[in-house]
UniProtKB/TrEMBL annotation, chain B:
Heterodimer of HisH and HisF. It catalyses: 5-[(5-phospho-1-deoxy-D-ribulos-1-ylimino)methylamino]-1-(5-phospho-beta-D-ribosyl)imidazole-4-carboxamide + L-glutamine = D-erythro-1-(imidazol-4-yl)glycerol 3-phosphate + 5-amino-1-(5-phospho-beta-D-ribosyl)imidazole-4-carboxamide + L-glutamate + H(+); L-glutamine + H2O = L-glutamate + NH4(+). It comes from Candidatus Caldatribacterium californiense. GO terms for molecular function: glutaminase activity; imidazoleglycerol-phosphate synthase activity; lyase activity. This is Imidazole glycerol phosphate synthase subunit HisH.
Amino acid sequence: MLAKRIIPCLDVKEGRVVKGVHFENLRDVGDPVELAKRYEEEGADELVFLDITASYEQREIMIHVAEKVAEVLTIPFTVGGGIGSVEHVSKLLKAGADKVSINTQAVLNPNLITELAERFGSQCVVVAIDVKRTWDRITSRSYWEVFINGGRTPTGKDAVAWAQQVERLGAGEILLTSMDTDGTQSGYDISLTRKIAEKVKIPVIASGGAGKLEHLAAVLQEGKADAALVASIFHYRHYTIPEAKAFLRKRGIPVRMED
Amino acid sequence: MIAIVDYGIGNLRSIAKALERLGKTVEVTNDPERLGAAEAVILPGVGSFGEAMDNMEKSQIVPVLRRMFDDGKPILGICLGLQLLFERSQEAPKKKGLALIPGEVRKLPPTTKVPHMGWNRIYFKRQAPLIENIPQGRFFYFAHSFYVLPEDESCVVGICNYNVTIPVVVNVGNLWGVQFHPEKSATWGMKFLENWVRSIDSNASYSSD
């Protein structure tokens, strides 16, 4: 049986790992290569590096980070943030990344998803979707709205429909972040995750809100996520990965652990 | 020198690094002469069936690979590299594969999540040098949407269950193919590569006797 994955996420700014709340108030939490190695040794199933500055001149820094990380890791890793062209993806994969995650550019140019999938294979194309509960004045209903540009720009797109569209376009995985719960440590958005996980056949990585081990169990079971993205609770050593996996296994959730 | 076949796409650095860590000299190439000079060959696991075959045909390395197979040179196909060893694939129905192993490549059934992405346990059907010191039921990393179906089941050394039974370790003589990514499978993946490298070395000393 396929194990549910625990994926530490490292937000990278100017070559350092940082962490904030609602994409703001950033604190330095360490060196990407050191953290990557430590998480692999602890039993992380995969890693995600998000370049949260992603200005043009800083792309080279991230390619360099990918190269250094690839030297030490024997588990897969994804790089995301500011990716918008086939050439950029090609550089990151050549540097040693296994997957790339695209977000804003996927919304602005959905064909990019198909181009990347045809050239590099769906398995390395992750589409990240940032979502916020929004009140629609016209229909007087709330819906899950897709945001781009690091959560600053609303798109009016419905997240469930967008998730289904990226699957059709060739995405291999969805990295789903709830902006409502991100950084709060109050738990993942279970209903959003479950809704999308039930509507697509590709794996869904849930993100945003892990504060307790209970939250991981909830999003993997009730939320039907295939993987849970985790940042603060590991970065600040509230829990270790072996503690998290032992907890999940007790709940009957299949995880990768040495017997 | 171990040659890693370059289809012109994707991440070849991880497998190259893994082999270098095991003390091997590695060359990423699509030059038929360099390939012919290698002691062993890796068909890596990046890209799609059609594009990889196109690139290998264009660089004229298909006959070299066939000859190396006939000569008993060690060849290891990883993920897509395993699939390329077969005759045909549903991923590119009009494209002919390397056809070193009779059989075909099929799309994973839609009854389950596709791609098969993540860590799954593998089980061995028989003993073989490359799986020495790897116990039953260890986790390896997978990322694929297609799987191989050999005509002759006796070449299947290891399997994995994902609604269907997927052959994940296949062996004919010195030709090996694995559906998982050993270079991305932490400790057990490195153990597998270490066994492969050791088998190359013993193969070389045997031939030079």
